[in-house]
């Protein structure tokens, strides 16, 4: 019984290694966007999410970053 409880606890509190998440963040001081693999810390006021989307791969996030208006270089 105790082993089963431990096994359930491990399953509930562990995150799968293949569950990668990527975010597009914008640095308000440099006005540049970057793809990161961790959500930004909300205490840092100069870094913000450029979009609310969460991407499954870095490639998807980089492609989406090119389409976001605030991340595009000015013409």
How would the blueprint of this fold be written?
Elements: H1 2-13, E1 23-27, E2 32-36, E3 47-49, H2 58-67
Looking at this protein, list some descriptive labels:
75 residues; alpha+beta; 3-stranded antiparallel β-sheet; 3 strands; 17% strand; flat
**What's the overall average pLDDT, rounded?**
76
Shape: flat
- Helical fraction: 25-40%
- What is the N-to-C succession of helices and strands? HEEEH
Query: Unreliable stretches, pLDDT < 50, 5 or more residues?
Result: 2-17
Number of domains: 1
Beta strand count: 3
Determine the number of helices (DSSP H or I, runs of at least 4 residues): 2
User: Compute the gyration radius: what is it?
Assistant: 17 Å
Which percent band covers the strand fraction? Answer: 15-25%
User: Which strands sit side by side, in order, in the main sheet?
Assistant: 2-1-3
Please describe the biggest sheet, giving its number of strands, its sense, and whether it closes into a barrel.
3 strands, antiparallel
Give an overview of the whole structure.
- The chain has 75 residues and is an alpha+beta fold.
- The chain has one domain.
- Helix content is 29%, strand content 17%.
- The chain has a 3-stranded antiparallel sheet with strand order 2-1-3, with helices on one face.
- It starts with a helix and ends in an 8-residue tail after the last helix.
- The model is unreliable at 2-17 (pLDDT under 50).
């Amino acid at each position: 019984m105790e082993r089963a409880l431990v096994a359930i606890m491990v399953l509930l509190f562990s995150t799968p290694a293949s569950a990668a998440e990527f975010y597009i963040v914008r640095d308000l001081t440099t006005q540049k966007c970057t793809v990161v693999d961790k959500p930004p810390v909300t205490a840092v006021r100069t870094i913000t999410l450029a979009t609310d989307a969460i991407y499954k791969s870095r490639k998807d996030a980089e492609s989406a970053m090119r389409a976001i208006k605030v991340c595009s270089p000015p013409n």
